[in-house]
Design a protein that fits this description.
The complex is a heterodimer of chains A (135) and B (135). With 135 residues, chain A is α+β, with helices and mostly antiparallel strands. In chain A, 38% of the residues lie in helices and 31% in strands. Chain A has a single domain, classed as 2-Layer Sandwich (Heat Shock Protein 90). Chain A is built from four helices and five strands. In chain A, strands 1-2-3-5-4 form a five-stranded antiparallel β-sheet, covered by helices on one side. The longest helix of chain A is centred in the first third of the chain and has 22 residues. The radius of gyration of chain A is 14 Å and the shape is globular. Chain B is built from four helices and five strands, in the order ββαβαβαβα. Chain B has 135 residues and is α/β, with parallel strands linked by helices. The C terminus of chain B is likely disordered. Chain B has a single domain, classed as Transcription Regulator spoIIAA. Chain B is 41% helix and 16% strand. The chains are: A alpha+beta (135), B alpha/beta (135). Chains A and B meet through α1, α2 and α4 of A and α2 and α3 of B.
């Protein structure tokens, strides 16, 4: 493990690149193709959020292990304006950007672990993980 | 990556060839809506077979295309949603409510034939019958 992939998110092509890299990493971790698509969709949502609200940020992808369980971790961080009302931002259908309001709550639904830290004026970090179902 | 739009009889067929950025999707929406008017077509097929992920932005854009095309007098049908993509959409809570979806291009053409038949189109040639049009 220990290998990390850091990707800059500053344009909409970077969103596509990040979700494709995430899918490739999920394949390495042994996720099914359905789960790879789920992970790619979650990355797409949080990468777009970086672009929309902070204009620029970073996504770090890594393989993780917990005992004999394998998974992927995705950390999205930016130095944007931060989220003043995290509870509302996590409500499905709530958006301050004329979006669908599925970004953060959607990504949370898709992943097993989801943690959001945000400080107004300093930025936002989303950490999420998905674990492979043991067979 | 621009999406080619083909014209077949009274229908437009947009065949997505690869993963699309948000800008590509928005451009597809503009191009299709403009072309519905220019070519006076009755139906639009968007083939998403090659789309890697359908996230909230893609779903919203496809919904917008269908609703805008309807306002311009054309029916839209989405074809080729892959099993993995459908799986992720459902987990994300995304629906294409109010938008017709069928399995593949062949079904899409049959669907549009059925929907536009009563508007005076010959289902075989997909063109208005010769002689004066009686809507």
């Amino acid at each position: 493990m220990g290998e990390e992939l850091r990707l800059t998110i500053a344009a909409d092509v970077d969103v596509v690149e990040a979700r494709q890299q995430g899918r490739a990493l999920a394949a390495v971790a042994g996720f099914s193709s359905g789960e790879q698509t789920v992970i790619a969709a979650a990355i797409s949502e949080i990468a777009r959020n970086i672009l929309m609200y902070a204009k620029k940020g970073e996504i770090t992808l890594a393989l993780v292990q917990n005992g004999d369980r394998q998974g992927v971790s995705i950390v999205a961080s930016d130095q944007g304006p931060g989220i003043p009302d995290i509870d509302r931002a996590m409500q499905y259908g709530y958006s301050t950007s004329h979006g669908v309001g599925a970004g953060l709550p959607g990504a949370k639904r898709l992943m097993d672990e989801f943690d959001l830290k945000s400080t107004v004026g300093q930025g936002t970090t989303v950490t999420m993980k998905k674990w492979r179902r043991s067979i | 990556m621009e999406v080619p739009i083909l014209r077949q009889g009274q229908y437009l067929i947009a065949s997505i060839q690869s993963a699309l950025t948000d800008a590509d999707l928005s451009h597809l929406r503009e191009a299709l809506i403009a072309q519905v008017g220019r070519s006076r077509c009755r139906g639009v097929i968007v083939d998403v077979t090659a789309l890697d992920v359908m996230d909230s932005f893609a779903v919203r854009t496809l919904r917008d295309i269908a609703h805008m095309a309807r306002l311009r007098g054309a029916e839209t049908v989405i074809v080729g949603i892959q099993p993995d993509v459908a799986f992720a959409m459902v987990q994300l809570g995304l629906t294409l409510k109010g938008v017709a979806t069928v399995l593949d291009l062949e079904e899409g053409l049959a669907f549009l034939d059925g929907r536009t038949k009563d508007r005076g189109l010959d289902p075989k040639t997909k063109r208005p019958p010769s002689g004066p049009f009686r809507g």
